[in-house]
């Protein structure tokens, strides 16, 4: 091989090496960006799951309260229940009844 061919071969190797380095750099850049996006999405997913749990707990609490209110409404439509409730709350009595308070105030 003569000197000119050796120089051309070195030049081609250098060009090839530069192309490989450029492709590796682009590949590593893409992998880095993808990794950052995955971490951001993971954090967002975690926050969303935590919020979902909080909202689900709040919804369960409201449903429970709603059920209790429905029961209360049903009870308040019953006249006997209202009479009994008023008598116990305000110490009213029927004729001939004596009220004893055993509660500790």
Strand content: under 5%
- Proportion in helices: over 70%
Q: CA-to-CA gap between the ends?
A: 112 Å
Unreliable residue runs: none
Largest sheet: none
Coiled coil: 45-79
Pfam family, one: DivIC
Transmembrane segments: 20-38
Keywords: Coiled coil, Membrane, Transmembrane, Transmembrane helix
Keywords for this entry:
2 helices; 105 residues; rod-shaped; 82% helix; mainly alpha; 0% strand; single chain
Protein described:
- With 105 residues, the protein is mainly α.
- It has one domain.
- It has two helices and no strands.
- The longest helix is centred in the middle third of the chain and has 74 residues, at 3-76.
- The radius of gyration is 40 Å and the shape is rod-shaped.
- The mean pLDDT is 90.
- Keywords: Coiled coil, Membrane, Transmembrane, Transmembrane helix.
- This is Septum formation initiator.
- It comes from Xylocopilactobacillus apicola.
């Amino acid at each position: 091989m003569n000197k000119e061919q050796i120089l051309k071969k070195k030049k081609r190797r250098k060009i090839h090496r530069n192309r490989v380095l450029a492709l590796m750099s682009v590949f590593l850049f893409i992998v880095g960006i993808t990794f950052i996006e995955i971490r951001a999405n993971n954090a967002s997913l975690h926050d969303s799951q935590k919020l979902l749990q909080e909202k689900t707990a709040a919804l369960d609490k409201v449903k429970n309260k709603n059920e209790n209110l429905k029961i209360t409404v049903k009870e308040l439509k019953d006249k006997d229940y209202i009479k009994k409730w008023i008598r116990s709350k305000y110490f009213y009595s029927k004729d001939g009844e004596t009220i004893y308070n055993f509660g500790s105030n």
